[in-house]
Design brief:
Elements (H helix, E strand, L loop, with lengths): L6 H10 L1 H22 L4 E10 L10 H9 L1 H8 L2 H11 L5 H7 E5 L5 E8 L2 H22 L4 E6 L14 H26 L6 H8 L12 H7 L3 H12 L1
Antiparallel strand pairs: 1-3, 1-4, 2-3
Helix pairs in contact: 2-8, 5-6, 5-7
């Protein structure tokens, strides 16, 4: 016999395990908030922009093919910027206590779409250090690229600066708590349905019909003898009532 699950049964299961779902969701959200606010280290971000081009003589006419070639070389420039040839010199200049591999993980290099502008973004626990590293990478690349490739026209468009009210880019406690809220609710609902699936005990007349396929002919109600005894008047009470009536 095929078992069918109606929406009414689903809602009944959710209502039955609602407290469990709320507890799991609250625990997940609170844990995410505590970790985001008190355990994770704030990370700040700073960016600079450079323009990479090949030098031109004053008499040289604008060449669209050359611009296209420069665009194709942008990916090469991005790799060079994050290479030890540049990062090692930055570490030496800024006296950083880290390896080139560690610094590489803090640096993101990306080019604007269909342009020769390269964005250099650095993330660090110190906002001032993040700006200093970004500017140092740009100037070091400007100094070293002529020795690496036939490029001698690197312009720094914008320098990385630290604002007055700099806020960390991560962690984002509100976003983390929102994600934890959704995930916690999903886990709570999943556990609720799992417990309901594993619970094969018979508690109601409807369970008998669903599990055994037999009609219910009658039911025996639960009788609480203690409450009935308390409600019945004692012999002393009856005697008192009789005396009061006789008098």
């Amino acid at each position: 016999m095929e078992e069918t699950i109606s929406l009414k049964e689903l809602f009944r299961t959710l209502k039955k395990r609602l407290s469990l779902i709320i507890i799991i969701t609250a625990i997940a959200t609170a844990t995410s908030g505590i970790v985001s606010y008190f355990l994770l280290t704030p990370i700040y971000q700073s960016s600079t922009q450079i323009l990479v081009n090949q030098s031109k003589d004053e008499q040289q006419v604008y060449n669209a093919g050359e611009v296209q070639t420069n665009l194709q070389l942008i990916n090469t420039y991005n790799v060079i910027i994050k290479s030890p040839a540049i990062l090692d010199k930055v570490i030496e200049k800024e006296k950083l206590d880290m390896t080139a591999g560690t610094l590489n993980g803090q640096v993101t290099v990306a080019s604007e779409q269909n342009s020769q502008v390269v964005n250099i973004t650095v993330q660090n626990e110190d906002p001032n250090k993040a700006a200093d590293i970004a500017n140092s990478i740009a100037t070091t690349f400007q100094e070293e690229i002529s020795n690496i490739m036939n490029v001698d026209n690197v312009s720094i468009l914008t320098q990385a600066q630290v604002g007055e009210n700099t806020s960390p880019v991560k962690p984002q406690p509100v976003l983390n708590m929102a994600i934890a809220l959704v995930v916690g609710a999903m886990i709570g609902v999943g556990i609720a349905f799992l417990l309901e699936y594993l619970d094969n005990t018979i508690k109601t007349e409807q369970d008998i019909e669903n599990q055994l396929g037999l009609p219910v002919l009658g039911a025996i109600t639960t009788i609480n003898m203690e409450d009935d005894i308390k409600e019945q008047p004692t012999s002393s009470t009856l005697r008192t009532r009789g005396e009061s009536v006789g008098s």
